[in-house]
Amino acid sequence: MIQKIKKIARENKQTVGIGVSPSKKEYISRTIKAAESAVKQKNADIVLVGDKNEIESVGISSRLHIHHSLHPERTLVELVKKQKIGGAVRGSLGASKFLKEIKQQFKVSTLYRIALLETASKFSFFFAPIGIDEGTKLAEKVTLVRAGVSLLKFLKLDQEPIGILSGGRMGDIGRNPRVDKTIAEAEELISILNKQGISNNAHHHEILIEDAITARCRIIIAPDGISGNLIYRTLVHLGNGKSHGAWYYNLPRPIIDTSRVGPIFEYESAIAFASAVASKSS
């Protein structure tokens, strides 16, 4: 799936801006290396958004462009909002200021993400919710799945199964009210997806996320944002898995979130992700 995204990005190359934090030389260097790799692979044309003096002090190739800004969080969001660039990647910018700018400029109170993850055995899938305050309501989960399905259709993978997780097995009903609620909600979610014509290939894998991977589900929905965040961290930080960025799907312009301490491959994939999604909406 990741290779499909990169292929689309190459065939429909867009200009992508990536944020460069001036706080540490290490952050600047890593962001530049990822940008240069993305340009070399022809996944996007790149604009580095940050302090020009700081960026040039590290050294860049002539293939990269710099948009000088002492307020890169604000500028990066402005550029993508005004369609001066096709898409944006948070890069090494801090989360708090960046999220504040997105909410203010796009006038949204809540942001929702769907992450592109990869297991240690190189199986990739879209996963949500990943923020602790995301996916708290059934309607939000329906929207999450709808966003994931739109990505699968774009990648011509819309026949792939969807895995819905809950807090226990069906045989656990009655042991704990909270578990019972997640099981009931998972079953209701599948019913809604069928009735609304979103997907007739969604399956309740209970608490068994390993079964959802074995079934090669290309979208996996956690019971809530807290469990989703724990699954994300366990996979990426302990389980030798990878994150390739997370798309803010409730925005009109493509913005991909990354960790400010993320490895080069995460930024590189996120750039391709942004370029591909930008070509989808262009």
Architecture overview:
By secondary structure, this protein is α/β, with parallel strands linked by helices. The chain has two domains: 1-108 and 251-282, Rossmann fold (3-Layer(aba) Sandwich), CATH 3.40.50.10950; 117-243, Isopropylmalate Dehydrogenase (3-Layer(aba) Sandwich), CATH 3.40.718. The chain contains ten helices and eleven strands. It has an eleven-stranded mixed β-sheet with strand order 3-2-1-4-11-10-5-6-9-7-8, sandwiched between helices. Helix 2 links the parallel strand 1 (14-19) and strand 2 (44-50). The radius of gyration is 19 Å and the shape is elongated.
List keywords for this structure.
Rossmann fold; 11 strands; elongated; 11-stranded mixed beta sheet; alpha/beta; Isopropylmalate Dehydrogenase; 282 residues; 46% helix
Helices and strands in order:
Blueprint: H1 2-11, E1 14-19, H2 25-40, E2 44-50, H3 52-58, E3 65-68, H4 72-81, E4 87-89, H5 95-106, E5 113-118, E6 124-128, H6 138-154, E7 162-164, H7 177-195, E8 202-204, H8 209-214, E9 219-221, H9 225-238, E10 242-248, E11 255-257, H10 264-281
Parallel strand pairs: 1-2, 1-4, 2-3, 4-11, 6-9, 7-8, 7-9
Antiparallel strand pairs: 5-6, 5-10, 10-11
Helix pairs in contact: 1-10, 2-10, 4-5, 6-7
Sheet with most strands: strand arrangement: 3-2-1-4-11-10-5-6-9-7-8
Shape: elongated
The DSSP helix count reads: 10
- Low-confidence spans: none
Number of domains: 2
